[in-house]
Amino acid sequence: MSECDNCSHEDCTSCNNKPEPSEQDLNIEKFLSQVKNKLVIMSGKGGVGKSTVAADIAVLLSKKGFKVGLLDVDLHGPSIAGILGLTGIPINTVGNKMLPYQYKDNLEVMTVQGLLADNDAALIWRGPIKIGVIRQFLADTKWSPLDYLIIDCPPGTGDEPLTVVQTIPDAKAIVVTTPQEIALADVRKSLNFCELAKIPVAGIIENMSGFVCPNCHTVHNIFKSGGGEKLAAEKHISFLGKIPIDPQIVESDDNGDPLDKLSKETNMALENIVKNLLNN
Ligand SMILES: Nc1ncnc2c1ncn2[C@@H]1O[C@H](COP(=O)(O)OP(=O)(O)OP(=O)(O)O)[C@@H](O)[C@H]1O
Ligand SMILES: [Mg+2]
Known about the structure:
By secondary structure, this protein is an alpha/beta fold. 35% of the residues lie in helices and 19% in strands.
């Protein structure tokens, strides 16, 4: 939103003179009007599997025939290109628009990783630049009309998720956690963020929930189990499902083929989450 000439409030809630929308505002609005569902993947905690879950859900939905966009707004630590095997491929442009990666048939992907001069380049950006870049990803990318736009956020409640929820008013959050209290404490902050930002929570996913021994099939609850489910019940939020600890997830993410050779339990868990999401 452009700044108001009259009162200089960003959103002009205290001024009746709404500023004229900028060309970028209009482009964002036009794109978002062609997206049926907007899902923001977030967590107060780092490393709980947000990017993995975002990529897995995006690929599974696209395999079911939905048109899906996957937008990585983790500007300092983009993981989506790596998980989908797109690292090192530059983003192309057509006219004044960026062309998202086309991953298999129905999945379009945009990430800052494809704009970096080299794979290991660090981005030293502060708030206003980050906000501008995320808005450009929405306004200046040649997205198709989408059934789902899935947005992978960095951990916490900083500039990136805030920009996303302020720019996409009808977004819903999916909050990813691991089962132990130290992760849940941070996740409660994410839920509080959603409440303050007035965005509904589509559900909680409990990742790294139990390890099924491939030899004896006994379940070992390495990070405990059930914490995310309990939190969802406590807050009256849908629980979308649990994903077990599966060493093959690490292998598949590292190899750029996220659903490759996952255990039967992991495949079932992911399918169940997508089913719950579709029934939500
Ligand atoms: N269920 C799981 N079992 C085993 N490994 C997992 C599982 N989920 C994710 N991982 C692995 O854990 C690591 C962290 O996952 P990921 O990058 O998706 O987390 P993140 O929450 O996006 O991290 P960040 O906060 O840095 O963005 C990756 O190596 C990933 O392959
Ligand atoms: Mg991540």
